[in-house]
Amino acid sequence: MSEAPSLERLRTAAARRPERPEGMVVCENLVRIFRSEGVEVQALQGLDLAVADGELLALVGASGSGKSTLLSILAGLDVPTAGSASVAGRDLLAMRRRERLEYRRRTVGFVWQQTAKNLLPHLTAVENVMLPMRYAGLPRGQRHGRAAELLGLLGLGGKLGRRPGELSGGEQQRVAIAVANANEPALLLADEPTGELDSATGEEVFGALRSANAELGVTVVIVTHDAAVAEQVSRTVRIRNGRTSTEVLRHEEGRPGVEYAVLDRAGRLQLPAEFTAALRLSRRVRLELEQDHIGVWPVVDGPQEEPR
Ligand SMILES: Nc1ncnc2c1ncn2[C@@H]1O[C@H](COP(=O)(O)OP(=O)(O)OP(=O)(O)O)[C@@H](O)[C@H]1O
């Protein structure tokens, strides 16, 4: 007899997922080059990123820094030009067409910024959540129960029969989060999920992503420009010019965190533009190993003075 769907079962399924000591997401030296009409754009320029199993992470960065490109690769919608990337132990560069389709159905869930893009307008909330389960081959008898449980978890238990047009923007995004979790993905990706919403509604949608992370154990990566979201997660990674440049770690939610520069395997780090501008650092710098830090000095023309 098939197991009855219940929230308890969803949670146990999450707990049964194998732990990945190497991380849920591991990207190393990831490069993505777009070529169109003879012009080359390096959207990712050797990006390193590791996301732990069960983590809730925010990705921030200026427009054009490469955030969406990275998300598309992790979602299995795009393929990197070089480097390595794996999600839940699946090598994203080695997957064939069929495996890629399976990966998109079962391993990752995706929530887009545009509320309308996430849901089919003629289906009710519960039907929208059941649809990916049908594609994944979940027996018909289990779909409704599981979809209703998911919507209940996200505070929409009373709105199963509403169509997207009969729901607020925040409610639509919460349904989208349920849809993205329908097939128990290991990784949930959200691209600006609060971007079209006012701050109170954005808070509500972020709360739903947090519930999915805490209750279902799904690892969550949120691309956001929303400071309220970035300040509430324990780790915020900043992408600059197609590389991870700094990250802020917070030990207590809502408290200011400590910002660290990211050092890659080759020992490279990106100096913040304001630092290099303030000391007019360009092309070369002089490095000095001190007892507990490394000094970086501008190179001035003429005979070099000893630092300090
Ligand atoms: N399909 C494409 N063809 C050509 N260039 C592209 C393509 N997709 C992205 N780019 C370029 O790659 C760079 C990174 O774009 P990306 O969309 O990843 O940035 P982003 O950080 O997500 O920006 P935003 O915050 O505005 O969404 C940009 O210079 C962009 O113009």
From TrEMBL:
The keyword Isomerase does not apply. It comes from the Bacteria. GO terms for molecular function: ATP binding. PANTHER family: ABC TRANSPORTER RELATED, IMPORT ATP-BINDING PROTEIN. Residues 25-266 form the ABC transporter domain. SUPFAM superfamilies: P-loop containing nucleoside triphosphate hydrolases. InterPro entries: AAA+_ATPase, ABC_transporter-like_ATP-bd, ABC_transpr_LolD-like, MacB-like_ATP-bd, P-loop_NTPase. PROSITE patterns: ABC_TRANSPORTER_2 (PS50893). This is ABC transporter ATP-binding protein. The keyword Magnesium does not apply. Keywords: ATP-binding, Nucleotide-binding, Transport.
